[in-house]
User: Fold this.
Amino acid sequence: MRIAVTGSIATDHLMTFPGRFADQFVADQMHTVSLSFLVDTLDVRRGGVGANICFGMGQLGTAPILVGAAGADFDEYRAWLDRHGVDTDSVRISEVLHTARFVCTTDSDHNQIGSFYTGAMSEARQIELKAVSDRVGGLDLVLIGADDPEAMLRHTEECKTRSIPFAADFSQQIARMSGDDIRTLLDGATYLFSNEYEKGLIESKTGWSDTEILDRVGHRVTTLGASGVRIEHAGGKRIEVGCPEEEAKVDPTGVGDAFRAGFLSGLSWDVSLERAAQVGCMVATLVIETVGTQEYTLRRAHFMDRFTKAYGHDAAADVRAHLH
Assistant:
């Protein structure tokens, strides 16, 4: 199964604040917020939604195709992704802009405040999926992740025009999107990904109820933080999957991307949606145990031992043959 992942390619600057953001806000002064947080640590890591998802899929051996835009400073990052099983030949390189930057601070409660500089990401709207499809011999699914908003709309319309199945995944971009844009991006999607907060925001901005959205997408996949994930489709049985036990809770950055990497890999292996969600939750657990979105190591024996402990021998048997 050939899966292309469109989305941001960025460098993450991750910091930790030893206190609680909530303790720093004054309720009647929220209209004039002026705060500076003295942080304890700074880690500079590779990131970006598209690259993070592809890295995880590459670790699982599913040869994802990364579609996005980066700057001339991408050479080292490209080599890293190539070495970890990602097809980067469809990444557009800007002649004038730097690769995007994400700056994020996490507090002691694992709440986050982040800023994103788009840089070369703004050129992703110039990428044609047909050229990608022709190069690899066709596409079976395109995940349309957080990216330049115009690129997200263009990729969605192209998927619809060319009858390419697609997954809608707004994540960080949902805050700036209008209801009209969100309706366009999700209508007809094979999969709609969001977390629980984004789920409510999608319904609020579109004016569509949960039932109405389920009538417009194949499956709605909602991540629930520590509670795992819920998968729904119109007229079908709800699937709920919990998370494996964590060995440590270090940094939540990139956990959602890791889930998507595992879930999409499960789709590529043609296992059940429940199994795909379990793989996603296992990969997400590995990420929360490390600092950085691409710093975890997926060792087959270790992965399968923990997967078996969490989900049982039958689930492990369905997955083991596919994990390289």
Remarks:
- The chain has eleven helices and 13 strands.
- The longest strand covers residues 10-16.
- Residues 77 and 196 are 32 Å apart (CA to CA).
- The first helix runs from residue 49 to 59.
